[in-house]
Amino acid sequence: MSKSIEIHASVLEEMAFTGDYAAIPQYMQDSIMNYALHRKKPGDFLTAVICNDLRGAVSHADSTNLPLLKTYVQWFYNRCPAFLVGKENFVRHLNPEAGEQD
Description:
Elements (H helix, E strand, L loop, with lengths): L8 H6 L11 H13 L5 H7 L3 H7 L8 H10 L8 H8 L1 H5 L2
Helix pairs in contact: 3-4
């Protein structure tokens, strides 16, 4: 089973969903934090956003999240630690043991 990770309190503060980012629904904020802290794979929409897959994000977005796509991208760019974003980082984060075998 994947282990949770520790993120320094100051980084967690910077990851806050304040200002424009408060528009991201609470259930999606929870999914993002579960991915970041507990290595839980998010749904298809968030997976696509995290992996910088615009086509996938648009095709998997629902009517609530599609209008917020720019807000998600800005949050991941401005607030999320870089080691959690991008396809390679996403795979490495969810499967840390796989990276150790190389």
